[in-house]
Structures are given as C-alpha cells and as structure tokens.
C-alpha cells in the first residue's frame, strides 16, 4: 500500500494537478513478489564492479572474475532433479531415462538411492530442487576465431531483477534505449534473398543507431540464425566501435547440445564450445554470433519452450526500467519482430498484443507471419474460421493435418484479437511506400502504438519525442512527430532541447530551432548552470572547472565541494580569452542564488538532482535570463569541441565576428593544454575554421562599406567582456585575420592619424623639420575642417600623428646614439663633460618612458599582470637589458678606480642600444620581413651550436691531451680546447699540429710564459715533437670534414628551409607584428626624448595632483545603443549572405556534386525497383482475380446445366456468389489507409481469453460463434465462480442444480434485482444465458450474482475554461472536463461509480470519494441528470451466466459559478491513501476503462462537445 506513495488528502484546489506517474502494468496481471525480492549482495556487489567496463567488457579482467565467481553462485541458481523416477520413454540411444529426461548417471549420487520414491509419479515441484549454478563465464566458439561472449545458467524461477543486475553491473552492458524481441520459426526456413537482406540491414541499423538490445532464442537455427548472421555481417563491415551490437540469446539449458563443456563451478574464462550441427540430433547448438547467453534451466532435458516464461518476465521487467541518457529519462520501449513461425509464435504475438507491446510482422517470411499479414487489412468480421482454414492449408501445407477443429477455432479467435488491435500491429511489406527499411518500420510501429496509447494530455507526444531523441533518429522525428497532428509550442521543446545539447545531437538542435525554439527564451541562468553541471567528464574544460572549485574549497577551508556557479565558469573563460576581457559572468554580490525547481512528476527528466522541465515551468518574474544566450550556448559547445553543434549556434549569433574570433582563441588555448594529440588537432582545425568564418564575414562587410566594417573592428563588445574584434584576433594570434586588407587599411589609417594616407614620406619629414610649411598645401589632412590655413589645429593634428611621433623618435634616437658614440670614442674624461651629462639626462627620459609603459593599465589588470605582459615583449627585454648595462657602466664610470671597466661596460651598452634599432626598422615593408627571418634564423643557430659544441669540445680535448702534457693554466686550456678548435673551422689551423711548421720559440717548454702556449711533447733534446703526427692529422681531417662540410652545410640548409618557410608567411607575420608598433606610437606622448619628460610631468600632475582619469589611447570605440544595434543588424545580414554563399560553393564543389548525383541515382534505382514490384504485384492480383472469375463462371454454368436437367430451377445447391474473395482481399490490400470499423456487433472484452484476476482461460469464441442461435458443437467452456468472502450477499459459487433452483430470475429476488434492462433472458439448466451471446466461460466469475449485476456510473462534467473564463474549443467544439478517480490496486482511471449493492442507491466506490453528508444532495443531482445509457456493459468480468448492466447518468455543470459544483468540489475526499481524484480533460485517449470511454463518447455526443 505504501509503495505507491500517494497523498492521503485530496483538496479541491489540487484536483487539477497532475498525479505522480504510475506503472504501466495492468491490474489484470498482478506482479509476482519474486520479481521484487531483495537479492542478497546486490547492493554491495554493485559498488565493487567498475562501471568503466561498459566500454570494453571483453575479455574479463582478474578483478571482474573474482567478483563474478563470488557473486553468481550466491545470487543465481540452477535446477536439478534430485530423485530418479524411471520414465516410460527412452533416450535417443535407447537407454533408460528419468522423467526429467536425464540418464541415471547424469543425476546426483543420492538421486537414485531412496527406494521410497521408486515407482511413484514424478512431481517437478518435489523432485526438482534449486542449487547454486555451475555454468557461467565467457564462452568461446572453437574454430571461429576470437568470437567470445558471456553466458550463465539460471533457474527458470530466477527473478528478472537479478538477471538485469547481472547484465548491467557485472557484464557491463549499458541499459538499452530499445528492446527488440525477435521471434519466429525455430527451424531453418527460406526467405527471399532481397527480403532477407532488407531485414538484416534494417534490424542491425535500428539496433546500432538506437543502442538497442536484440533478444532471441539464441539457437543456431531459424530466425535466431538469421539475426546472428545479420549481426555478423554488420560487424565485419564496420569498425570495432561501430560494430558493438548487444544480441542476447535466451535458450533452454536442457536443449543445448554440447552444454557439458559449459559446466565449470568456478566459472569458465573462457569455456570452449563446439558448434556441431551434424550430430546435434533433436537438440540445438548455440549461435556463435550472439554476444550474451542466458540459459534457462528447469531441471529437464530435451524440452523446448522452458525459457518463454522467464523471457517474457525479463522483457517486461526491462521495459519497466527508466533509462536516463543526455538529460532524457524514458521507460525502455519494447517491440516484437516476427518472422515466419508456428503455433508458439502465434501465442507470443497474442501475449505481446495483450500486454500492449507493438509487433512488426514481416510479410513474405512464411507461415504465421504471412497468415496475419494477409488478413491484417480485413475487417474483423470477415476474418472467419473458413478464411483462416484456407490460409493455413496454403501456408502450412506440410503440417495442416495436425490442425484440429478446436485448434482452428482457437487460431481464429487469437488472430481476430490481434487484428482488432491495429494500433499495435505493423505489417512490413517489401516495397511498401514509405517503409522500404525494416528499421523505419520498427520505429514507426513504436510511435503508432504510443500515439494510440491512452494518456493524459500531451504526455504521449512528449514520450515519442524523448524516444526519438534517445535513439538519435531525427528522420523519424520529422516524419512521425512534427506533423500536423500536434501543435508544438516552443516552450514544450525546451527540456528535450537541453537533452539534445547535452547528448550532442546537433540534428535535433537544428530541428528544434526550425520548430520555433527561441534561444533567448530557452537559455536562462539555471539552464546554463545545468548544462555546465553535465559537461562530459573527459572534457578538459570540466577538469579546469573542478580545479577552480577545489581551489575555492581550499581557500574557504570548507569540507564540501562548493556548488558550481557561473562565476566559476567565467574565471576559467577569462584565462582562455585573455585578461584583456572583462568577466563574462560576474560573481554575484549577494549570497548563492536559490535553485528554482517545480517538479513535474509525470515527466521524469531528472539528472543530478535537477529537473529539466522545472527549469522552464516557473513564473517569468523569477527567471533570470542572460545577457546574450546565443553566446552562452556557443561557449558551452566550443569548450567541449563540438563542431556541428557550435556551427548551428554560431549561425544564430548576432555579434558573429567577435564570436568567431573568441571561439578561435578559446580553442587554441585549450589545445595547448590538451594531452590527446587527436583532440588537439581537431581543436586547432576548428579554431582555424572559425578564423576563416570571421574573415569571410569581415570581407563581405568591407566590400559593402569600409567605414562600417572598420567600426566593427574597434567596437567595444559588451557580450564578449568589453573587448574588440581586433583585440580578440591579436590575443588569438589570428594572423590571417589581422593581415586582411581591410584590417591593414584600418591600421594604416591609425598610423597616419589625422593626416591623409596619400602624403609622401619626404613631405612629412620636411614639415617636421620646417613646421611653418604646415600652413601651405604641402600636407593634406583627412578632415576637411583642418584644411584652411591659419588653423592652430594643424600643429596638434600633425605632431600627434603616430607616424610623426615615430619619425621624431627615430631622429631623437639617432641623435642619442651619435652623441653616445662621440662620448665613448672622443670625449670620455675622468670628469663627465656636459655632453656626457646630456646622455645621462637622455637616458633618464628613456627610463621614465619605459616606466610609463609598464604602469599604463587601461584595462585595470593590475601592476603584476601588466609587468608580466611587459616582460613578454622581446624589445622590452632588450630595453631593460640595455638600461641595466648602462647603469652598471655608469656606476663603474663614476668610481675613479673603475673608470676603464666602466667605459668597457658602456661600450657593451652601446651595442645593445644599436640592436634596438631593429625594432624601428620593423615598420618598413622591406626591412620588417627580413628582421623576422633573422629572428627565426637565430633560433636555428642556437640549436646548431649544440651540435657544433659536441665536435668542437671532443676534438679540442683530444687534441689538447695528445699534444700537451698537463697544462695547468685555465685560460690556455680554454684557448686550446675551445678557441683554437673553433678557429680551425675557419681555416686558422695551429702550426704545431702536424709537426712540420713546429717552432720551439713560439711556445713555452714549461708553460711559465703567460703570453705563450705550452710546447707539445718533444724529444730529450727539445728539438723535435714526438707526438703521433699521423693521428692528429687524421683527427684534424675528420674534424674539418664534419664541421666545415657537414655541419656548416646543415646550417645553410636549415637557414634555407627557414627562409623558404618564413618567406611564405613573412608578409602575414609582418602585418601582424606591425600592429604592436602602431599601437605603441598611437598611445605614446608626442614629444621625443628627452623632451618627453614634459609630457611625463603633465601626466604626473593630472593623475597625482588633479586626480583626473587617464586618457586611454587604445583602439576601442564604444557606440551608442541605436548605432550599435544598427551595426550588428547589418553585420548579421551580411553573415547570412556569407553562409548562403558558402552553401552555394559547397554545392558547386565537384566532389559534392558527384556525391549528390550518386545519391540521386540510388534513389532513382530504388524507385524503379519499387515501381517494378508494384507493377508485378498488380498484374499478379489481376491474374488471380481473373482466374477466380473464370472459376466462378464455370460453377455458375454447371449449376445452370444441373437445374435445366432437373426440369426446373429448384436445385439443391446454392447459387454461387459472383464475387471473388481473392479480388476483395486484393482490394483491401490496395487500400492505403486502415479500414474504419464500426463498433463490433458483439461483446469483445467479455471474450478475452484470460479471465481477469485468475489463471482461468476462456474457451475461444470467434465473432461468428458469439450468438446463441449459431450452432457451435465444439463449445465447451470451463466454469469459474469466485468466492467473495468479504461480501455479505453473493450467489453460490458451485453450479449444482440444487443450489441454482433457489434463485428467481427475471424478477426481484429479495433485495437482489435480477431483471434485465433488455427484457426477459433465457435460463438453461438453472443458469441464465448472457443476452449478448457466448463469452467462453460458465459460472459467475468475479461477479456477485448470476444474471444481471446492476451498476451506476455518474458522468460528472464541466466545461474546460481559459484563464479569462471563456470555454476552450478544439475542432470548433467545446471541450469538457470529467471527474475521474483511480482506486486502490488499480493502474487505470475510471468513472466514479460501480456495482450497486442490494438495496443501495449509490455505488460503494462513489461513496469512497464523497463525504457522507453530501450523499443525499448527489442523489438529487442524479435525478436532475440526463440518462445516456441503460443496458448491457461489455465488461471483462462477464460470463455466459453473469453480466454487468449499468445506468450512466450525465451530470453537467454548465456554469463555472455553479453552487452545486463548488459544493461537490468541497465534499470530495480520499478515504483511502491510495485513492486519487481529478478533473480531466475529456479526450478519446485518456487512460480509462474501454467501456467507460464508450459512456463518455455518448455524453460528449449529447452535449455536442469534443471527443
């Protein structure tokens, strides 16, 4: 009772709320407690099994083996016969066997010892016992390569929960998105080659694309073999990753041939299995193409079908599980696929249809499948015993003699019930339009069944869409879901939109955008947090986020990991985008925002404690929308390197150029830290692609309007951290973008300032030296207002232009170098002269300027960050080095004792200052690229020196050791080892190395002369050297060979390669680096050193004394809102043009055109094949019709001849009908739509084979045998009468004549009304006969009385209204709401009524939902109501001798202010904790009892309302 978790009270205000979702299992099939038993060690074992095995679970590791060996024997059992009872039958070899089918020696040792059981009847319940299983592990098929699967032997009574736990936890299988149960012929059968290929391809396609499990019988025969071969062909044609299809074979252990090889008490890892079809006899071999086997054991041998009950329970259990993937939670759907088959297959189809499982019948596969397929389009009334008999005689020609008359009746009844549920039946016909593939047929069958399933409101459409998203079948979603049958609101798609994003399904995201999903409405603050919460753990961005959270936890000294918030994401993004950007998601000043969630119980989309639907079902005032939702989604997709998803979102963006450049920057930064090389390459390729997108959009903008395009470069983008497109491109080092002609034209304009770019350089230099010439027309300005002479703005505009500032600084720098050189060479006195003091002053101005550059912080980054950025620049490092060396030289120079060392150090500083000139030359288009080449070559030289040092040092040490003995002077050691060896490369070979030019006067014999090297080894007379000259010459030759020829040529080759490589990109690199120089002089004070100190003094006064904000000279421009909106709209318009142009180019691409043509040819070929098949089919149908007509004409002529011979027209034979049954069938098959059947003339529910609430099976009664008037000699129904111990009044449950004679029918029998609304009914042998005909069951069943059992069903309705009080309409008809209830122990909703107790006026179930004080008033409402039905009710409890008759009264409240309706709502109550009451919109698909829906249909017709 408590498991359902219902609320104990139902308040009137809560009546319209959605109740929690309940199980789908009907009340007529109660679950067994064994399905829900707590299995020992289930919980503890799940923690010990690694979920990572799901990716690759073959072969089993040592830890997994240990877990499996310990877990399986504790939780899984087998069955064995414990007592040998001799059977009358013998084995195939003629030996005596037990009743269980096993030989004596195959039993346990104690099985044959107890003599007390010998000769007694064998009883499975007593003689078969369970014990731990002894067959499990890995199965390897000998001789078939490395085909390895999993297997286990289980008892037939094993709870499905245990098996499912084994598969998902220990075998490492992911829960399926779909369960495909394939059934059919167990023996080999022949299929048409084309149909076989279509079936195989379609089956594996649906399994592979949806992540389905395929369940079969597991044998190497019949339909199981077809499935196995289909999986085999698919695996051979695909890669290992794509070829993982879970194929589970559930077979009977006692029928498996060679099963002895699978027995291993400690598990077989692996167990070798031999597939031997030749010697299997009546047994069957396992199919080698299945991946998993569940071998069901009931303790018997050779008996087929043992696995069917367990397979049915397992499939039902799996279908009740919820699969959560990508934010979507769905109950695992199941579909039954049927090929061929016999009687067992018909039972399987019937049970599946009865349980609401959709079935796909493959027509053309033979036998049962063809019988059902050929009658599926016929009205049920035309499916007669004669027709089924005819079909069976054709399709079962070999075994037709085995069909008894009783069996024919049973088959007819089952086929009628199967065809009656057309919503669950799908016939796959080869060549049928729109259904060329089996995978489409399977998925369409599921959608058709779901669409016709009873449901509340839009639950069903949600379920279908969740299925399509989980399967990733956007084609099915387009064709089956987004149709005219349902009007989707954009808000309804938000949860599945989030699911599609998380599970990376770009096609669905594109589809939802086409269906009207607005990203600005979809993306809220909570949605973003939810999306980042569900980042893939393997994503680098996820690990960076976790690192930030960990640092915050350590900073706050907390024990719990802080919750992810958007400012954490912003922190990581700022690291990736660069510090020039402001935080995209600033940290909130208040405390943590409360999570807003409204649970929706009937739609389970919960992931990590969050509800997808709850993110959107809240008031508008409480939802926090982000500034730019498209930007937020784009970042989320890019950081996960999801290319297709990011492209779709970027196409929606408004600030598209900044977005593309930002994505390029993020990807390049992530690629630096990514460890996987493949992912790194993908990121860099995607970054380059986004750079090309930005270039493409900017190119179109620049062609349209240069000025507006350049505004896009410097516009401050609030969405991207108050940065600009140009700054993003520079941060990302997007050289292609920066070197674009439009960007360079903008930089040139900045370089010339307010001067016209057409001015020649000599004019600028002339006016710089002779500024009065500015008032002539020698220099032109861009702004016309500066052109008139006499304008003071001329001077300011000219001298603040970056090019003029640059030229003046060059002039100043050259003057500084000339003066510095003059002082070093001519005027370096002990006491500094005025020229030297001028140099010191000049240097001080340079130091002040470098300090200004270091402290200049327009973006507010801080001193530390600015210092790090300053140091990164190579030229700044050179400046610091020169200044420090100069200061060191100056310090030594001012000390008299170190005057000379000071001059030396200052000379070195002069060299560094001269090298600084190269930075000035970078502005030149000629010299700039060459300097870049020189810098790259210097790197080559640096690495080359490592190679050279090896040879120089090795040769130098060897030479020194051979020639000279114990040289102790370090300086001469260095000279001999390094210096002389290095000079040897350039031809300065030491004279004493070969002994020919040896001169004793040029060296010191004892090494005492500090100016001479030590002499080589000589003879005693000190005249001739004694070292081995031949060795030193050889070493010298080898040394020169490798250094002069090999290494130097290698260096030349490296230089050549670097030159060629850099030369191709030199122009781009120069253009990219040109920006730094322009930016530097754009923000530099106009005065050159040393006059620049005046500007520094001005800045110091303004900032330090007057506290004025600094004037920023960065290339940024903040536009007005209207101007910015217009600019972005213009950019977005040109982006659309760019995307259209790209699509046109792709279509015009040769390779794409070839692919399109090939695809069209394939489609055309398929259409031609289908057309040919249709034509052939039509011809065959017409020929069959013609043959039938000829046959009928011959019969008619024969009858006429016989009549004429008899001298009259009264023949004993009936006139043959001129119509053709085959023609009629062909006509039916040609119908495109399914035939609309009227209400069946006979009761249907009362003839369900399984009587509700019992295990009693009715006698099958086809439609044609229902009336009592129709002769039915075979009719022999069983008897069943339930004993209601809790009822005070009930008829006897025995059918003895003595007890039945006490009952008075067709009158009032005491308090029991036995009068029928249909008049007098017949009584036979003391039992009344159901006025509507046979039901297949005698007795009173679960009803209380024989004859009519009267009931009352009030239908309480009101109009469904909008918020403004107006009545809602659908299809121009008013919509109703009806009061419904769900009673305890029932999963179906019902009208608040039921059976009337003797003497009562209100049903007991109605009293349950109404307070006692309201009963009299409700009786008055019933009297005022309208009677809509009075008579027989088609109820599953009806029998031949007891039936339900009801009175349905419509109680309608026309006004929403009706006093009686308000009182009714106030008096509604739930007297039982599991009782639910609600007002429900009246629709034909609400989940009510079928007979109750008939009553609602009549009420809606009376009121003229929608149904």
Could you give a short description of this structure?
The protein is α/β, with parallel strands linked by helices and 1507 residues long. It is built from 48 helices and 32 strands.
Number of strands: 32
Main sheet specs? 10 strands, mixed
Strand order of the largest sheet: 10-5-6-11-9-8-7-14-15-16
Low-confidence stretches: 1-60, 591-624, 1214-1237
What's the overall geometry? elongated
Number of helices: 48
Distance between the termini: 34 Å
Class by SSE composition: alpha/beta
Query: pLDDT average, as an integer?
Result: 81
Helix percent band: 40-55%
Can you tag this structure with a few keywords?
ten-stranded mixed β-sheet, 1507 residues, elongated, 46% helix, alpha/beta, six-stranded mixed β-sheet
Description:
The protein is of the alpha/beta class and 1507 residues long. Helices cover 46% and strands 10% of the residues. It has 48 helices and 32 strands. The strands form 10 sheets. Strands 10-5-6-11-9-8-7-14-15-16 form a 10-stranded mixed sheet, sandwiched between helices. Strands 25, 28, 29, 30, 31 and 32 form a 6-stranded mixed sheet that branches. The protein has a two-stranded antiparallel sheet with strand order 1-4. Residues 1-60, 591-624 and 1214-1237 have low confidence and may be disordered.
């Amino acid at each position: 009772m408590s498991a359902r978790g219902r609320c104990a009270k139902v308040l009137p205000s809560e009546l319209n709320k959605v109740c929690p979702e309940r199980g789908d299992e009907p009340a007529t099939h109660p679950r067994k407690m064994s399905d829900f038993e707590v299995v020992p060690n289930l919980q503890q074992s799940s923690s010990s099994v690694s979920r990572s095995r799901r990716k690759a679970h073959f072969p089993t590791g040592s830890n997994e083996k240990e877990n499996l060996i310990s877990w399986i024997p504790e939780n899984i059992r087998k069955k064995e016969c414990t007592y040998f009872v001799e059977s009358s039958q013998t084995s195939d070899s003629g030996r005596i066997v037990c009743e269980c089918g096993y030989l004596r020696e195959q039993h346990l040792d104690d099985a044959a010892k107890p003599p007390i059981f010998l000769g007694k009847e064998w009883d499975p319940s007593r003689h078969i016992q369970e014990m731990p299983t002894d067959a499990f592990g890995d199965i390897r098929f000998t001789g078939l390569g490395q085909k390895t699967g999993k297997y286990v032997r289980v008892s037939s009574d094993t709870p499905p929960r245990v098996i499912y736990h084994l598969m998902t936890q220990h075998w490492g299988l992911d829960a399926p998105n779909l369960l495909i149960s394939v059934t059919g012929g167990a023996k080999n059968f022949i299929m048409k080659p084309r149909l076989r290929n279509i079936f195989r391809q379609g089956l594996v396609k649906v399994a592979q694309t949806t992540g389905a499990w395929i369940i079969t019988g597991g044998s190497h025969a019949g339909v199981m073999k077809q499935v196995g071969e289909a999986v085999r062909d698919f695996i051979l044609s695909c890669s290992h990753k794509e070829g993982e299809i879970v194929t589970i074979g559930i077979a009977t252990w006692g029928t498996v041939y060679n099963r002895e090889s699978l027995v291993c008490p400690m598990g077989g890892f692996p167990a070798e299995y031999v597939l031997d079809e030749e010697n299997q006899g009546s047994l069957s071999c396992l199919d080698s193409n299945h991946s998993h086997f569940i071998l069901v054991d009931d303790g018997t041998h050779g008996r087929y079908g043992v696995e069917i009950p367990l397979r049915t329970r397992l499939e039902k259990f799996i279908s009740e599980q919820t699969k959560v993937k990508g934010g979507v939670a769905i109950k695992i759907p199941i579909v039954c696929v049927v090929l061929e088959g016999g009687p067992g297959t018909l039972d399987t189809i019937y049970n599946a249809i009865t349980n609401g499982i959709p079935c796909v019948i493959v027509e053309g596969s033979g036998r049962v499948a063809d019988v059902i397929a050929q009658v599926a389009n016929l009205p049920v009334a035309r499916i007669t015993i004669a027709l089924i008999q005819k079909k069976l005689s054709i399709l079962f020609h070999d075994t037709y003699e085995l069909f008894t008359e009783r069996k024919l009746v049973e088959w007819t009844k089952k086929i009628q019930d199967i065809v009656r549920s057309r919503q669950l039946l799908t016939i796959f016909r080869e060549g049928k339009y729109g259904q060329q593939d089996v995978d489409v047929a399977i998925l369409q069958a599921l959608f058709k069944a779901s669409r016709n399933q009873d449901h509340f409101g839009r639950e069903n459409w949600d379920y279908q869409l969740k299925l399509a998203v989980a399967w990733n079948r956007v084609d099915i979603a387009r064709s089956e879901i987004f149709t005219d049958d349902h009007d989707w609101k954009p808000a309804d798609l938000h949860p599945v939109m989030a699911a599609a994003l998380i599970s990376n399904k770009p096609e669905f995201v594109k589809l939802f955008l086409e269906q009207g999903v607005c990203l600005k409405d979809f993306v809220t603050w909570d949605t973003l947090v939810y999306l980042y919460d569900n980042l893939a753990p393997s994503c680098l961005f996820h690990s960076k986020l976790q690192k930030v959270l960990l640092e915050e936890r350590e900073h706050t000294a907390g024990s719990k990991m802080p919750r992810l918030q958007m400012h954490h994401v912003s922190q990581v993004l700022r690291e990736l985008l660069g510090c020039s950007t402001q935080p995209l998601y600033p940290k909130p000043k208040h405390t943590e925002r409360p999570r807003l969630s409204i649970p929706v119980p009937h739609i389970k989309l919960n992931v990590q404690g969050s509800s997808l639907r709850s993110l959107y079902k809240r008031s508008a005032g409480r939802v926090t929308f982000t500034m730019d939702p498209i930007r937020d989604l784009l970042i989320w997709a890019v950081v996960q390197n999801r290319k297709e998803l990011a492209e779709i979102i970027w196409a929606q963006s408004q600030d598209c150029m900044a977005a593309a450049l930002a994505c390029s920057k993020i990807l390049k930064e992530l690629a630096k830290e990514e460890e996987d090389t493949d992912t790194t390459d993908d990121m860099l390729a995607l970054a380059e692609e986004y750079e090309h997108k930005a270039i493409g959009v900017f190119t179109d903008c620049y062609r349209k309007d240069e000025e507006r395009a350049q505004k896009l470069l410097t516009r401050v983008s609030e969405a991207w951290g108050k940065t600009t497109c140009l700054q993003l491109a520079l941060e990302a080092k997007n050289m292609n973008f920066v070197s674009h002609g439009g960007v360079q034209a903008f930089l040139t304009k900045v370089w010339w300032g307010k001067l016209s770019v057409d001015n020649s350089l000599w004019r600028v230099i002339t006016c710089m030296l002779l500024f009065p010439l500015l008032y002539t027309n020698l220099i032109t300005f861009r702004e016309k207002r500066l052109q008139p002479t006499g304008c003071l703005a001329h001077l300011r505009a000219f001298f603040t232009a970056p090019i003029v500032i640059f030229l003046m600084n060059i002039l100043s720098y050259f003057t500084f170098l000339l003066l510095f050189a003059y002082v070093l060479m001519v005027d370096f006195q002990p006491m500094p002269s005025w020229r030297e003091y001028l140099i010191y002053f000049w240097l001080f101005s340079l130091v002040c300027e470098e300090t200004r550059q270091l402290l200049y912080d327009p973006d507010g980054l801080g001193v530390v960050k600015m210092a790090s950025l300053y140091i990164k620049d190579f030229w700044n490092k050179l400046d610091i080095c020169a200044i420090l060396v100069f200061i060191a030289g100056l310090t030594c120079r001012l000390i008299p004792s170190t005057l000379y060392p000071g001059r030396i150090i200052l000379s070195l500083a002069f060299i560094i200052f001269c090298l600084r000139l190269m930075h000035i030359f970078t502005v030149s288009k000629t010299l700039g690229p060459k300097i870049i080449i020189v810098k790259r070559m210097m790197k080559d030289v640096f690495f080359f020196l490592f190679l050279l040092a090896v040879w120089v040092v090795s040769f130098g040490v060897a030479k020194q050791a051979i020639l000279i003995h114990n040289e102790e002077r370090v300086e001469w050691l260095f000279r001999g080892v390094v210096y002389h060896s290095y000079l040897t490369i350039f031809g300065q070979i030491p004279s004493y190395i070969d002994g020919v030019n040896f001169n004793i006067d040029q060296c010191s014999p004892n090494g005492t002369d500090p100016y001479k090297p030590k002499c080589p080894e000589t003879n005693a007379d000190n005249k001739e050297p004694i070292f081995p000259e031949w060795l030193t010459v050889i070493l010298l030759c080898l040394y020169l060979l490798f250094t002069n020829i090999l290494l130097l040529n290698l260096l030349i080759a490296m230089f050549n390669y670097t030159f060629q490589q850099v030369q191709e990109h030199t122009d781009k690199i120069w253009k990219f680096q040109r920006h730094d120089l322009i930016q530097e002089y754009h923000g530099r004070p106009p005065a050159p050193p040393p006059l620049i100190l005046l500007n520094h003094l001005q800045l110091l006064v303004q900032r330090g004394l007057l506290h004025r904000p600094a004037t920023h000279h960065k290339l940024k421009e903040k536009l007005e809102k209207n101007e910015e909106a217009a600019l972005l709209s213009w950019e977005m318009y040109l982006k659309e043009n760019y995307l259209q142009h790209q699509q046109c180019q792709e279509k015009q691409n040769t390779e794409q055109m070839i692919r399109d043509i090939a695809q069209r040819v394939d489609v055309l070929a398929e259409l031609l094949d289908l057309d040919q098949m249709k034509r052939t089919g039509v011809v065959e149908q017409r020929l069959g019709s013609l043959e039938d007509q000829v046959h009928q004409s011959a019969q008619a002529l024969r009858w006429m001849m016989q009549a004429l011979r008899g001298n009259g027209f009264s023949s004993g034979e009936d006139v043959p009908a001129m119509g053709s049954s085959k023609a009629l069938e062909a006509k039916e098959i040609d119908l495109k739509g399914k035939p609309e059947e009227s209400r069946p003339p006979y009761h249907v529910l009362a003839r369900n084979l399984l009587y509700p609430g019992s295990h009693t099976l009715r006698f099958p009664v086809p439609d044609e045998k229902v009336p009592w008037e129709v002769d039915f000699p075979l009719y022999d129904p069983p008897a069943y009468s339930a004993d209601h111990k809790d009822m005070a009044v009930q008829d006897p449950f025995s059918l003895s004549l003595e007890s039945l004679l006490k009952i008075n029918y067709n009158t009032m029998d005491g308090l029991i009304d036995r009068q029928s609304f249909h008049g007098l009914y017949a009584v036979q042998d003391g039992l009344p006969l159901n006025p509507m005909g046979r039901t297949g069951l005698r007795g009173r069943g679960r009803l209380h009385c024989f004859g009519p059992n009267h009931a009352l069903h009030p239908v309480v309705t009101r109009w469904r209204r909008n918020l403004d009080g107006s009545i809602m309409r659908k299809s121009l008809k008013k919509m109703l709401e009806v009061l419904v209830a769900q009673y305890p122990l029932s999963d179906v909703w019902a009208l608040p009524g039921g059976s009337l107790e003797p003497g009562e006026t209100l049903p007991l179930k109605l009293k349950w939902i109404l307070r006692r004080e309201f009963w009299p008033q409700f009786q008055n409402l019933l009297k005022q109501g309208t009677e809509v039905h009075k008579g027989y009710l088609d109820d599953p409890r009806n029998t031949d001798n007891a039936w339900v008759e009801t009175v349905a009264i419509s109680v309608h409240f026309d006004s929403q202010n009706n006093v009686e309706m308000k009182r009714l709502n106030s008096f509604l109550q739930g007297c039982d904790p599991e009782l639910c009451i609600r007002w429900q919109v009246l629709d034909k698909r609400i989940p009510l009892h079928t007979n109750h829906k008939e009553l609602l249909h009549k009420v809606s017709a009376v009121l003229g309302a929608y149904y």
